[in-house]
Amino acid sequence: MEEAEDRYKNGGHTLTDFMGSEPTKKRKRRTSFTPQALEILNSHFERNTHPSGAEITAMGEQLGYEREVVRIWFCNKRQALS
């Protein structure tokens, strides 16, 4: 705690100043889906709320999004319905 107080007195006012190190990983920017992509995703979701890994990969390639982005979209969509 004394170290943080010393940093504050010496002009360190950000969280990383108090922690003493820079963050190692930055968050990825939020993905914006096109209306066409949302239409396809929603249509697939109506037929199957839990697509297989192969289906997710195929949708990602078809839509031009990373597989992980499509997987997270399905997770978020299921969560929103809970």
Provide tags for this entry.
mainly alpha, 63% helix, 0% strand, 82 residues, Arc Repressor Mutant, subunit A
Describe this structure in words.
It is found in: Nucleus. The protein is mainly α. It is built from 5 helices and no strands. The chain has a domain of 53 residues: Arc Repressor Mutant, subunit A, CATH 1.10.10.60. The chain is elongated, with a radius of gyration of 21 Å. It starts with a helix and ends with a helix. The mean pLDDT is 85.
Estimated share of beta-strand residues:
under 5%
Number of helices: 5
Q: What is the CATH level 1 assignment of one domain?
A: Mainly Alpha
| Main β sheet profile | none
Q: From the alpha carbons, calculate the radius of gyration and give it in angstroms.
A: 21 Å
Structural class: mainly alpha
CATH homologous group name of one domain: Homeodomain-like
Q: Give the H and E element order.
A: HHHHH
N-to-C span: 42 Å
| Spatial shape | elongated
Tell me the helix content: 55-70%
Instruction: Give the name of the CATH architecture of one domain.
Output: Orthogonal Bundle
- Within the CATH hierarchy, at the fold level, what is the topology of one domain? Arc Repressor Mutant, subunit A
Low-confidence stretches: none
